[in-house]
Specification:
Blueprint lengths: L21 E4 L2 E4 H9 L10 H14 L6 H22 L3 H33 L19 H29 L13 H14 L18 H23 L13
Antiparallel strand pairs: 1-2
Organism: Komagataeibacter intermedius NRIC 0521
InterPro entries: ScpA
Protein name: Segregation and condensation protein A
């Protein structure tokens, strides 16, 4: 089978890459789109690049490619270079919040380092002091008792000292920090109403739950709230007695005038 002449043509080729301005500055060598991509993904430090060199090379590249590049594509270049300038400016003018956060972190780190240095100095000072059983000994003996009971006693002493320090700290916190406590009024509760109604039932003096509502000794306006609480608690207690079968629904119905 013979092939047609059309089948002997060149194989399909990949479309050429659109022209993009190239930069050759210290710290980067490549096209504009790659530079922007690396900068946005923080894979390249824009602080080491010269903005003046980038601007000069961009102008030169734009003039070189002006005749062969459509206007819309050149507009994209301007947007890309503006994005680069914006990212570069953020390195120069950090926000006030970022500065404050960095300063606080630096102070915290310095404080930790100072604390470690103080602890090390205290340890060196203690190490230089004469130690009983190591550099000095009690009168009449030079042997050091290294039994488990002695070490255990030392551990217990250390724990007792730590507990005493913690107790003092907790006592200071308890006296220095006020604790808010809610003042709950002594209102008539459902449990009180149930106990009172059952007591009347046992004595045979129960007729209706509304005879079991206590008097409220509170003055206005507290008296009105206490009265409402007593009525609500008594009503709920009556419903509970009806549910348990200890009272009829007639004893819960509010008497109508």
């Amino acid at each position: 089978m013979l092939l047609d002449e059309e089948d002997w043509g060149d194989p399909p080729r990949r479309r050429p890459r659109p022209a993009v301005p190239e930069f050759h500055v210290e710290g980067f060598d490549g096209p504009l789109d790659l530079l922007l991509d690396l900068a946005e993904r923080q894979r390249l430090d824009l602080g080491v690049l010269s903005i003046a060199d980038l601007a000069a090379q961009f102008v030169a590249e734009a003039e070189r490619l002006a005749c062969t590049t459509p206007l819309m594509q050149r507009a994209d270049w301007v947007i890309w270079i503006a994005r680069l300038v914006f990212l570069r400016s953020r390195l120069l003018f950090a926000t006030q919040a970022e500065k404050q956060l960095a300063e606080n972190e630096a102070r915290r780190t310095v404080g930790q380092i100072e604390g470690l240095l103080q602890m090390r100095a205290a340890a060196d000072w203690l190490e230089a002091k004469p130690q009983l059983g190591v550099s000095v000994f009690t009168r009449g003996g030079t042997d050091v008792d290294r039994s488990d009971s002695v070490r255990q006693g030392t551990y217990f002493s250390l724990m007792e000292a730590c507990l005493s320090v913690l107790e003092r700290e907790l006592a200071q916190i308890e006296f220095s920090v006020p604790i808010y406590r809610i003042d709950v009024p002594a209102y008539w509760r459902v449990t009180d109403a149930l106990a009172f109604i059952r007591a009347k039932m046992r004595n045979g003096a129960f007729r209706s739950i509304w005879d079991c509502v206590p008097a409220t000794p509170f003055a206005e306006p507290e008296g009105l709230i206490a009265r409402r609480a007593a009525v609500a608690a008594t009503f709920v207690a009556g419903l509970e007695l009806v549910r348990q079968g200890d009272a009829s629904i007639d004893t819960v119905v509010f008497p109508m005038a």
